[in-house]
Amino acid sequence: MPSPVAPAAPSRPALPWLAAAAVMLLWASSFIVIRFSGAHLSPGAMTLLRMVTAAAVMLPLVLTGRVRTPRSGRMWAGVLAWGVTWFCVYSVVLNASELFLDPATAAMLVNLAPLIVAVASGVLLGEGLSPRLLVGVVIALCGIGLITLATSTGHVEGPGLVLGLLAAVLYAGSVLGQKPLLAHIDSTSMTVVGMTAGMLACLPFAPQLVAELGSAPASAIGAVVYMGVLPTAAAFLLWGYALTHTPAGVLTSSSLIVPAITVVLAWTLLGEVPPPLAAVGGVLCLAGAAVAILPAMLASLRSRT
User: Which of 208, 230, 168 minimizes the C-alpha distance to 46?
Assistant: First the structure.
């Protein structure tokens, strides 16, 4: 493995946080798409269509020479394993979990990932275990619990719980695996190479996708294409940039606001008026995320290159 190269601090310290905010909005919208399109496309077929779209969006970066391949066999192995895990396995598992869980319960289970990352990054990546960070995560998780209690349909089955928890572990593991790799490869190249690996790993679902495209409505197909362009291609480029310049535990904690954003999007786009208890939960999500990430955000904004 080559010697790590410390990334340069951004000339505008607010940019990583603005990138993170855009990522959270885009990822929240993907829960709406999965809920809508999952009735017409199976988990594997949906993931393949999403990844083919994302890879097509990334193609100009390859053609213009913006993508650099990993410099050693070990780096290739690390980036490919990360890409298959994050862009194929995690996506299929998350989509499958919502066959057995309502979206609110699925979102609650997946958002255990920030707690896992906060603890693991402190121990494994040397970022330290900040009591403030852990308190903020716990507050936000309480808010997510209230949202789940208020909006859950009660459709919960054993396989769904296992898949939801597995999705959280895969999410956390992907973040923890990406952070050290970014010391050796730029975030754009890692995203493009990893995304291509994830798309290729999804190719066994091609027969399913071809069969289901014939019966799926254009709106469901268009929604998945949207998910490939923005919540996947654009969001993961922004995520890689933000993760290069911020601690993994702190950045991942920003995803605690995703359930609150999802409630607002469901209200706005699907006409699902949130119960009062869900609104309280959303406020707790925002408060917990503020406690967890605001000190690091303000410290970075005060810094200069």
Answer: 208
pLDDT band at 104 (very low <50, low <70, confident <90, very high): low
Residues facing 101 on adjacent strands: 156
DSSP type of residue 151: H
The string of pLDDT tens digits covering residues 198-238 is 999 999 999 999 999 999 999 999 999 999 999 999 999 99
For 92-112, give the DSSP string.
HHHHHHTTTB-HHHHHHHHTT
SS3 content of the chain, % helix, strand, coil (to 5): 80, 0, 20
| Whole-number Å distance between alpha carbons of 175 and 190 | 13
- Residue 280, Cβ neighbours under 10 Å: how many? 16
Which among 90, 281, 93, 290 has a CA at the least distance from the CA of 178?
Answer: 90
Q: What is the pLDDT of residue 50?
A: 97
Is residue 56 within 8 A of residue 65, CB to CB? The reply is no
Backbone angles phi, psi at 163, to 5 degrees: -65, -40
Percent of the chain with pLDDT over 70: 85
Each residue's pLDDT tens digit, 269-291? 767 676 788 778 878 877 887 78
User: What single DSSP character describes residue 216?
Assistant: S
Q: Which residues neighbour 96 within 8 Å (Cβ) at sequence distance 6 or greater?
A: 43, 163
For residues 171 and 252, give the distance between their C-alpha atoms in angstroms, rounded to a whole number: 10
Nearest to 202 by CA among 95, 84, 93: 84
Question: Going by C-beta distance under 8 Å and a sequence separation of 6 or more, which residues neighbour residue 297?
Answer: 17
Q: Cβ atoms within 10 A of the Cβ of 140, count?
A: 31
Give me the residue spans of the domains in the chain.
Answer: 19-302
